[in-house]
Amino acid sequence: MAGRTGRRPGPVTAPYQVGDLVRGPEALPPGDYRTPATYEGEVVQVGSGWNGVDADHAYLWIRLADRTERRLAIRGSTLIPPAERRAP
Predict the structure, then answer these.
(1) Paired strand residues for 75
(2) 69 touches 6 (CB < 8 A)
(3) Tell me, what's the pLDDT at 75?
(4) Are 45 and 60 in contact, with CB atoms under 8 Å apart?
(5) Residue 80: CB partners within 8 Å, gap ≥ 6?
(6) In whole angstroms, what is the distance from residue 79 CA to residue 59 CA?
(7) What is the 3-state secondary structure (H, E, C) of 7-53?
(8) What is the mean pLDDT of each run of 10 residues along the chain (88 residues)?
């Protein structure tokens, strides 16, 4: 299938964009009943990029201050207002 990228055609809307600063709970795999840790960082990817993969359990990837990345559940995440942002 030449040219197939897995991306949805046309504009896609999401509650967050790459570069937003957010805080939220980590997205645990199905069946993992631990209490999710809360992280904050810069959005580096919204969802999987593949149509339908994360429809039921939407997530986003963030980069933490220590440059590691975590996957957050979109439902529990919020934008961090400028007044609450930590100095780098």
Answers:
(1) none
(2) no
(3) 84
(4) yes
(5) 21, 22, 23, 40
(6) 14
(7) CCCCCCCCCCCCCCEEEEEECCCCCCCCCCCEEEEEEEEECCCCCCC
(8) 43 75 92 94 81 66 95 90 74
Joined tokens for residue 40: 């904050």
Q: Which of the 8 DSSP states describes residue 2? A: T
Residue whose token pair is 């339908």: 52
Q: List the structure tokens of 20.
A: 């937003």
Q: Residue 23 phi/psi, 5° resolution?
A: -130, 135
Rg (CA), the chain: 14
Check residue 4 and give its pLDDT: 40
Q: Which residue's entry shows tokens 């055609």?
A: 9
Distances (CA, A) of 23 to 3, 4, 10, 45, 61: 36, 34, 28, 14, 11
